């Protein structure tokens, strides 16, 4: 592992000295075509030359410690050039999700107070409009432009740049509310890279040999912290796709010679729907790193494609300060197990009364880093929201909002987000559990579950379904809904099955393909009573 220094820029410069001729980035032809950039590999030495030149240009334009610069560059190579160049000057980057529209851009621009946005020319008008609506003075440039003069003096120009300097401001996905700006210092990223480089087990990274392929966006902490810094720390090559393409995924894996892949739960499910082929194991992948794989598909995926999917848990806020991963046996494949905490992490599971729960009892996951600094590796706080930061750290523990249980052997098992638990007639129902069963149905392409009000039961379960071959005819929809609910009733307690089935064209998703739970609840409330929403409550009967 390379010596990191105290900033991300120093960590990369150190690796460029050691691994100069090795590739840092690989841009596949498919990704190059989408972005309109050159395909091929960029070595550490070449990247460092680009970083040095851009850093000098930014410095000449007056950018410095305390400025923030928005990067709407998706997974283009220019993202990394601008990030490392700005980091060396103490400038924090704000990755901007390309899916954001006017109101969302206005909020981000105003809240983050960015001095400059770097984006393709097609997004300049929207960014200028957002700045105007937010009443912010902000410059906008393309990735290869000469930086315009900084619109205001660097707020911390005279302060030293170090490990606690803000490296990035990463906005949460806002799945249940308005996005929060997580302040991520240099130590957050360096800790993530060092953790990944050292964990070993089934996730052993070989110095100068790994080629890590990720379809996740740089607005996601997995891609920006774990993927990027793990490769920087070990002299590996990062293969950043524009997004996940199920039909060409294995072609990309083989063409890039990937040895590690990163995934989210929806990806294995989609790949398993493809017809099995003789070349399913013709690849160099040693392991996958991710979260949320459907437990009923986990073992089957590994048997078919020949490598382990290592389930992990973390949040944007925790970084690697309290990450847990099932990188050693027994992994308890098929049980929602994500491993057990290492010696550097402390875990506590508590019930609604705040008291610790017992073995196999569900409780909220509280975490902190072991040792003298419980926040080591974590975010530094929520921007402009000290009250939310304090609430999250109440009692000296970070409150994750995730419901987890600990098995008899010590492994942790994910149940659901606390806010995703549906309360029906006194029974707690995990949305994730119901979604897992729905996704196994052969006609269901995508599914998400939300509560809707019920006068007698408090909540009822509503399933939004993206179906395969379900006709627009009302009778066909009713028959399909009945078939789906019968499927669930055969596999779940009756009260967990959907009481409503709504057929929709698409689910509200974040850039990292997570369901936007806040928008889903709005959608669920609106569809009840509509022709494409079938009432199946009469099918839910207690077994006699």
Task: Explain what this protein looks like in three dimensions.
With 544 residues, the chain is an alpha/beta fold. It has 15 helices and 25 strands. Strand 12, helix 11 and strand 13 form a beta-alpha-beta unit. Helix 3 crosses helix 4 and helix 5 packs across helix 6.
Radius of gyration, in Å, reads 24 Å
Mean pLDDT: 93
Structural class: alpha/beta
End-to-end separation in angstroms reads: 62 Å
Q: What is the global morphology?
A: globular
Strand order of the largest sheet: 2-1-10-9-11-12-13-14
Number of strands: 25
- Low-confidence segments, ≥5 residues, pLDDT <50? none
Q: Assess the beta-strand content as a share of residues.
A: 15-25%
Tell me the major beta sheet.
8 strands, mixed
The portion of residues assigned to helices is: 25-40%
What is the overall number of helices? 15
Provide the fold topology:
Layout: H1 8-18, E1 23-27, H2 29-35, E2 40-43, H3 44-60, E3 68-72, H4 77-87, E4 92-95, H5 102-112, E5 116-119, H6 124-133, E6 139-141, E7 166-171, E8 181-185, H7 186-198, E9 211-214, H8 221-234, E10 237-240, H9 249-256, E11 260-264, H10 266-272, E12 287-291, H11 295-305, E13 309-313, E14 324-325, E15 345-350, E16 363-369, E17 381-382, H12 386-392, E18 398-406, E19 412-417, E20 421-424, E21 427-430, H13 431-439, E22 444-454, E23 458-467, H14 474-489, E24 500-503, H15 517-527, E25 533-535
Parallel strand pairs: 1-10, 3-4, 3-5, 5-6, 9-10, 9-11, 11-12, 12-13, 23-24
Antiparallel strand pairs: 1-2, 7-8, 8-17, 13-14, 15-16, 16-18, 18-19, 20-21, 22-23, 24-25
Helix pairs in contact: 1-3, 1-8, 3-4, 5-6, 7-8
């Amino acid at each position: 592992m390379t010596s990191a220094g105290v900033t991300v820029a120093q960590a990369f410069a150190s690796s460029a000295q050691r691994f100069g001729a090795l590739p840092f980035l690989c841009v596949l032809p498919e990704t190059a075509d989408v972005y309109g950039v050159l395909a091929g590999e960029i070595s550490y030495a070449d990247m460092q030359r680009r970083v040095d030149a851009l850093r000098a240009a930014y410095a000449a334009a007056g950018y410095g410690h305390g400025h923030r610069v928005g990067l709407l560059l998706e997974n283009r190579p220019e993202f990394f050039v601008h990030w490392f160049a700005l980091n060396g000057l103490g400038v924090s980057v704000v990755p901007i999700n390309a899916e954001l529209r006017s109101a969302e851009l206005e909020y981000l621009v105003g809240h983050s107070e960015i001095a400059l946005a770097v984006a393709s020319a097609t997004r300049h008008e929207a960014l200028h409009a957002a700045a105007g609506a937010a009443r912010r003075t902000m410059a906008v440039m393309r990735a290869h432009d000469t930086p315009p003069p900084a619109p205001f003096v660097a707020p911390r120009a005279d302060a030293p740049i170090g490990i606690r300097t803000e490296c990035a401001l990463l906005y949460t996905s806002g799945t249940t509310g308005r996005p929060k700006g997580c302040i991520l210092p240099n130590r957050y990223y360096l800790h993530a890279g060092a953790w990944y480089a050292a964990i070993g087990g089934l996730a052993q990274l070989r110095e100068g040999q790994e080629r890590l392929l990720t379809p996740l966006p740089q607005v996601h902490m997995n891609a920006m912290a774990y993927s990027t810094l793990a490769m920087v720390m070990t002299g590996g090559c990062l293969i950043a796709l524009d997004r996940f393409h199920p039909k060409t995924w294995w072609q990309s894996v083989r063409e890039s010679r990937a040895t590690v892949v990163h995934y989210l739960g929806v990806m294995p499910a989609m790949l398993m729907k493809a017809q099995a082929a003789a070349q399913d194991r013709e690849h160099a992948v040693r392991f996958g790193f991710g979260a949320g794989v459907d437990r009923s598909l986990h073992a089957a995926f590994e048997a078919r494609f020949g490598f382990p999917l290592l389930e992990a848990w973390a949040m944007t806020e925790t970084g690697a300060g309290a990450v847990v991963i099932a990188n050693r046996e027994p992994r308890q494949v098929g049980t929602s197990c994500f491993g057990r905490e290492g010696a550097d992490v402390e875990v506590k599971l508590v019930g609604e009364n705040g008291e610790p729960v017992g073995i196999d009892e569900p409780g909220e996951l509280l975490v902190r880093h072991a040792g003298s600094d419980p926040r080591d590796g974590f975010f530094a706080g929520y921007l402009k929201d000290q009250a939310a930061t304090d609430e999250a750290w109440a009692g000296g523990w970070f409150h994750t909002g995730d419901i987890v249980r600990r098995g008899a052997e010590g492994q942790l098992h994910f149940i659901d987000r606390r806010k995703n638990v549906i309360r029906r007639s006194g029974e707690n129902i995990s949305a994730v559990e119901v979604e897992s069963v729905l996704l196994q149905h052969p006609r269901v392409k995508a599914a998400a579950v939300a509560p809707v009000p019920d006068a007698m039961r408090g909540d009822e379960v509503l399933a939004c379904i993206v179906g395969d071959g379900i006709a627009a005819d009302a009778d066909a929809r009713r028959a399909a809904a009945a078939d789906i609910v019968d499927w669930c009733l055969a596999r779940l307690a009756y009260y967990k099955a959907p009481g409503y089935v709504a057929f929709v064209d698409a689910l509200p998703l974040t850039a990292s393909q997570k369901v936007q739970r806040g928008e889903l609840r709005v959608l669920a409330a609106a569809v009840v009573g509509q022709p494409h929403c079938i009432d199946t409550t009469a099918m839910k009967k207690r077994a006699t």
